[in-house]
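[09:14] KT: can someone run the structure on this one? pasting the chain below
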Amino acid sequence: MMNLFFALAFFTFYGSIFFIATIFLYFLYKKNYKVFIQNILYFIPVILVISPLLYHQFIYSKIALSSVSNWSMVLGKVNIKNLLLIPIKFSIGRISFYPKMIYWIVSGIWTAWVFKKALTGGLKNKQLFFLFIFPLALGFVLSFFTPMLQYFRFIYLIVLMSLLLGRSNRHGWILSIGFITLCLVYLLNPSFHREDWKSLVKNLPNNKPIYMIMSSSDPVKYYSRNLTTNDLTSLRVNELEKEIIVIPYTSDIHGLDYKGLLTKNGYRLKKEVSFREVTYEQWSLSTK
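[09:31] RB: done, structure tokens below
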């Protein structure tokens, strides 16, 4: 049964391989060689079945890393920011606020206390602590070879963190109040929710050409099959109309300075409309 769950986990989320490998290594550490070998032999067919897809995705990822300027930022390369974001996002979720200095101070204090309590629980249950820490360690090491250190790849470990916090025995009411408050802040404040593509598409002007990164245009196509989008990466200013719409989503990842190009050629930003972390810009050719 455990191997079935391993297979289903790996088929639906490749990041689960860190947790699966941790369990295998735990059997090895406990010198339970029979169970270790059995699980390895059961899991090999799973890898073989999905290996063609894994190979193609690996190749496409290598192409993206070489052709898209900042693609490694999306995947999560090893740096201080990504390392800090893992415990912070585990502790406070997607909440963020300005000024950023205050955010880092408040979230840092809360996160340090939460993980101190998790460490206390880990001292009482070393098996849980091993299952919680080792997937992060594996992801950290692998990210030196291929970036994979984004916090959302390890979000399933929050379950283990919660179990560790439950083992700490003291100040449980403070932890409960803190997490409930953070959940309510997130749920009741729409600005923390995911991008509102539906509202953006609904409010797009339908009489002006729309430019965006084509590999990120699926949400627009999903909410309106009648809208035509043009490739922002192949922008030709001398072929543009007097007014255009730009959806700049992921343009920074591609290292595309479309603003500099438009400004240099006489366009000015007329207005910018935001829909929860996704925006559209209206640019018009200056008559001056």
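[09:33] KT: thanks! The chain has a mean pLDDT of 87.
[09:34] RB: yep, looked fine to me
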